[in-house]
Amino acid sequence: MTINGKKIFLLFAFSIIFLSAAVFVRAQTCDSVCNQGDAACLTGRISDCETKVSNLQGQANTLANQIAQFNAQIKLTTLKIAQTEDQITLLGGRIVQLGDSLSALTAAFSSRAVETYKLSKFESNFAFILSASDLTDAVSRLHYLQKIEEEDRSLLAKLQTAQTTYQDQKTDQETLQKQLKAQQTSLNAQKTAKNNLLSATQNSEAKYQSLLAQARAALASLSGYAESVGVSLVPHQDLSDGWGKYFNQRDEQWGNLLINGDNTDCRGGACTLARVGCLVTSYTMVVSHFGGSLLPSDVAVNASNFYSNTANFNSPGPAANGHSVEQVSDPSMQQLRDKLNSGSVIIAGLSVNGGPASSHYSDHWVVLRSVDGDSFKINDPVYPGAMNVSLKDHYSSWTIIQAKIYN
Q: Angle formed by the axes of helices 63-119 and 135-201, to 10°?
């Protein structure tokens, strides 16, 4: 074989190896199995799972598709948890090594400090040099002093760098631990949401489509009233009293956040907290009353709180910091008064048109805090600063057609 022939053969061989490696990397799928510690493989699987979730979200909204989305999302979150755990393990090893290095540098610096202190017995470098026997000795001593000072400065710089790096790595570790906790919470929420969907639909496509239509109708009612008031964001207010915290659905800190990632049309706009988040926001106020510390944004990103992939809050809804909830349709005013006087807290569904709950959906939700003569004191999540105001302020002619009673 000629020299040129050998070059061509080697180039061809290297090309085959490179292409094979590239194919191997691309071959990592959502369902691939990776060896422990294989970060590249894990990254490839995560990327493929993200693509799979995105593709499923663009397909027809059927029960089978929703279950497939949940399965892919659960697998994706599980992979991200594994990735975070690997990062924590790797970082833990680095922190141990940094700790050992920091200890060694600290000991060395302490030793150097002792030697430097001994030299400082001389009043000055000048006195140290004058004690020399001749000029050559003086120059040598001067160089020695300079060397000592340079080494001290270098060691001190290394020690300071090691301390900064160590603290940075510890901070990164704490960040990863928080990230891991959030991912584990998200995974549990996704599993719960999937189970809730299967339970609600009983694996029936017809039942799923019927509940989906109801969810969209409920969101349309909420959006309609919010639009009449305004869905523009308002400045954040940190308000609370002896009853609990006040939150506003239009707060600039979370008003534009999609509820449950629902980016479909909620009567002219995306399903944000500002547009359809009155029930979610009311729920967080009830949680605060019972000693919890959730924000509207915390509730909005928890998939288990909503029906399927929509922004529609589950009926009757989750417990509030351990306090169970009872859903009542068309409650009487006396029933509501009795519950409030017994210590319960109520989220009330209001209808601008009146009539039974079976005929339509609530247009807005507020928190009933206490009895106020023939009315109630409320926290209203749509009007800024509406904490402990009268129901009559904006809803004197409205009807309470639904109630979520927290005991």
A: 160
